[in-house]
Structures are given as C-alpha cells and as structure tokens.
Amino acid sequence: MIQNIPEVKLGIVAVSRDCFPVTLSERRRQAVVEWCKRLGINIFEAKTTVENENDVLKALDELKAAGVNALVVYLGNFGPEGPETMLAQKFDGPSMFVAAAEETQENLFDGRGDAYCGMLNASYNIGLRKLNPYIPEYPVGEAEEVANMIAHFVDVARVVIGVKNLKIFSFGPRPQDFLACNAPIKPLYDLGIEIMENSELDLFEAFNNHKDDPRIPEIVKQMQDELGTGNKHPGILPKLAQYELTLMDWYEKYRGSCKFAIFANKCWPAFQTQFGFVPCYVNARLASRGIPVACEVDIYGALSEYIVTLATQLPATILDINNTVPKDMYEANKDKFKDYKLTDLFMGFHCGNTPICHMKYAEMRYQLIMHRLLEPDKEPDITRGTLEGAIKPGEITIFRLQSTADCLLRSYVAQGEVIDVDPRSFGGIGVFAIKEMGRFYRYVLIQKRFPHHTAVAFKHIGKVLFDAMKMLGVDDISFNQPANMLYKNENPFK
C-alpha cells in the first residue's frame, strides 16, 4: 500500500472586482464546485469572496480552519489584481489561477465578467510578487472545463507539496565510479528539501542493532508470501528483513520536522562483504510503499523516483538506460515492435529493485556482476538478494531531475511503453520503446549531461511532471517530441 505521500486538500476562493457584481463571481464559483463534485473532486468552497485586502485575511482564515493545502484562485469576473495575488502570496501551499468564460450571448450586459481580461493583469501582478502558481494552458473556461483543469492541478499540487515536505537520507559517500551521482545538492535546499547525509558506518551500526529483532519473523513471512515460488534463496530472507526494519526505523526516527522521507544508499561493493547480501529486494519493497531507495547514493535519482510516485500515486522504480536491443531480437519480434525503429528501443535494467507489482514474473536471485567480482567460482552467498525478471508490458514515462555542476536544475520527460518481448537477460529488465529515442538520447541525455539512472512511472504522466517542474522553478525541461527535441520550458502535452 502506498504511503509517504501527501493528501491534497483543495480549496477554492472566488475573487471579484468591486465594479462588477459580486454575485456573478459567487454563482460561477458554486457552479465550478458542483462540477468538481460530479467529477469526484473533493474541494472546500470558501464563502468569503475576495474584493479587498481585508477579504484576503478572512479567506485565509477559512482555508486554514478547513485544512486546505492547495488553493484555486478563481476569477469569476475581472478580479482585484492586488488582493487576488496577495491571497496566493500569503497562502502556504501551491496555488492555481483560473478564470470564468462567458456563458451565453443572451447575458452580456449584467452577466459579462471580463475574467479573460482580468487574467492578464493577474499575471502581471503574479510576476511583481515573484509567484509561480499553476496556470493552465488555456486558463479560461465554463464550470465543467474549469473543474477538469482543477482535476489536473490535484496531481501537480501533490508533487509540489510532497517535494517541499521531504527529507532525503543518504548513506555513504557518493561513489567515484558513478561521478554522475555527485551532483551538487544546494538546489535541493532551494526546493525546500532537507538532506541528512550519513556514513555507511551509521547504517552498519543501526543494522547490527537490529540483530534478533523480534519483528524479523513477521517480515520474513511477508516476503515468503510475496515471492511465492520465486523464493529461490530463502536463507537470505532474515538478513533482508533485518535490513528492512533498519531502514524503516530510521525513517520513523529521523524524519524530524519533515512529513515524508526517502533514501539514497551505497550498495556495493563493500556493502556485500560487510552486510552479507545485496539490498535490491528491500529497495523494491520500500518503493512499493512510496519510499524509494535509490542505489549508488543517487540523491537526485531517489528524488526523481519519489516525484513520479507523487504524480501517479503508484510505485515507481529507478533503472539504468542500459543497453541497445540487438538487431536479431528486433527482426525476430517485428510484429510486436510495430512502427518503432531500432533506435527507438533500449533496455531498461537494474540489479533487482523494481517492485514486484510491475514484474511480469519475478524471482529472488543473486547479482551476477557482483558475483563475478566478489565470489567467483563459489555458490552465491553475499551476492544474494535481487528481485529479477521481466518488467510488465504497458505505458511508461521516464523522468529525471538533476543539478548541473553550476547548480541549475534540469529535467526531462519522455513517454513510451514496455514491449512484451523477452529481454533474455538478467536483473529486473524490460525492452523499452520511446518515439525518437535515438535523437532524445543524443540531444537531451548526452547533450545536457544527464546520467544513466532514470525514474520510471508506469503510466503516461508527462503533463503532470512538466507542470510540476514549472511550478518548482526548474530551469530547463526537455521532452521527447518527434518534430523537435530542442524545445525548452514550453508545454508539449497539449
């Protein structure tokens, strides 16, 4: 069950310019709320309509008393540009601005609101106050259209709220062999994220303190039930259970003032020789609960995985954009690859950290690469603990947020699918197809210096991710578009 994500509690406040009938804005607000109810959107309707600064304070009191954490500022008519933007400025949470369209040609005297015009002045004042609210692609509509815009805002707001209430725990120095994981963390503080960097010794001590923990048998039983016939190395389960309890107790003890937390942990090669296992399966289990654990101390990878979890409310994973699809595999499965080119394809792989719910089949195995390195010519022992198999076919979105060396934030979004083709390899792995991946690989991933790890959402969620990155102030957002890979900060998901 997904945990570790915020519940979005929407509130809507109508605004009205005092030279327009306040009843027009109120009536239109009520119509939007009614449509939200029809769409299953729970939204608090503030009764204060903001016409001046005193109304702002009254409305904020209403919102606070109702526990609202995401605000819709609704221009039912032209709106008072100063008070309405002050409302968003003083509200502690993400906000959205949207405006009412005129409903009928039969009522363009007393019933005309000019909110189309008012959005322009609102946007100017938003800039003066250095605000960054969500404004839809076309932010003017009738009640049903506005309600649908609000539905999208719920997902965007969940990402923003989650990120701004997050702590990232890391264990171990970021590895030299993966310098891409050494991106500056200063931009994370700018996003409102707390970082708690710890030594591997801290983790090792905490792990040893959980030896013979009375809860271990229950966790082992859960793992046995989950793995079923895929439980190929049952002897390693007690250590994995001990490690899972170590991380979860750390999560509860050290979140501090933050509501949510995730991990970025060193996972090899000393991990195996000291802890006696690989942590991949535990990482998968925590990810299935909405608590990503990125390997190789990839702090931005963990954050990226958490962001797609927030956007989808589904478990996510982190994979390497790993290897090409061989030509003979492509030729042998032409019917399944449809109109994809060979350069549209790649294999997404990691040792075994993808939640079992996203696996076509899954088994507890050992990490082949580490086995070659650490215990060659021996039966697997300290390299046991991976969850391996083919990733289920279906929709995916790949995403990454990354800092540049000079502390700018960059991200990318690309939508595609996992193809139902046997990858014929080890690890948690799947054959991925993304239109124009070859160009995306060269002109986004390489050109803009993105690393090998990507977060994977198991649905198409590009528009939410794009809009959330805009609200968070990300400097550069790239995406896969067949016509042009070089757009920057212009929404492609129209």
Write structural notes for this entry.
It holds the Pfam family Fucose_iso_C. InterPro entries: Fuc_isomerase_C (IPR015888), Fucose_isomerase_N/cen_sf (IPR009015). This is L-fucose isomerase-like protein. One of its GO terms (biological process) is fucose metabolic process. With 494 residues, the chain is of the alpha/beta class. The protein folds into two domains: 10-163, 3-Layer(aba) Sandwich (Rossmann fold), CATH 3.40.50.10940; 173-479, L-fucose Isomerase, Chain A, domain 3, CATH 3.20.14. 37% of the residues lie in helices and 21% in strands. A six-stranded antiparallel barrel has the order 10-11-16-15-14-17. Strands 2-1-3-4-5 form a five-stranded parallel sheet, with helices on both faces. The chain has a four-stranded parallel sheet with strand order 7-6-8-9. The longest helix is centred in the N-terminal third of the chain and has 22 residues, at 143-164. The radius of gyration is 25 Å and the shape is elongated.
Question: What is the secondary structure topology, with strand pairs?
Answer:
Layout lengths: L9 E6 L6 H17 L4 E3 L7 H13 L4 E6 L5 H10 L4 E6 L14 H14 L11 E2 L1 H22 L1 E6 L14 H5 L3 E5 L1 H9 L7 H12 L9 H18 L5 E6 L4 H6 L4 H8 L5 E2 L4 H14 L4 E7 L3 H6 L1 H4 L7 E6 L12 E4 L1 H7 L9 E7 L3 E10 L5 E11 L8 E6 L3 H10 L6 E5 L4 H10 L4 E4 L15
Parallel strand pairs: 1-2, 1-3, 3-4, 4-5, 6-7, 6-8, 8-9, 13-16, 15-18
Antiparallel strand pairs: 10-11, 10-17, 11-16, 12-13, 14-15, 14-17, 15-16
Helix pairs in contact: 1-5, 2-3, 3-4, 5-12, 5-17, 8-9, 9-11
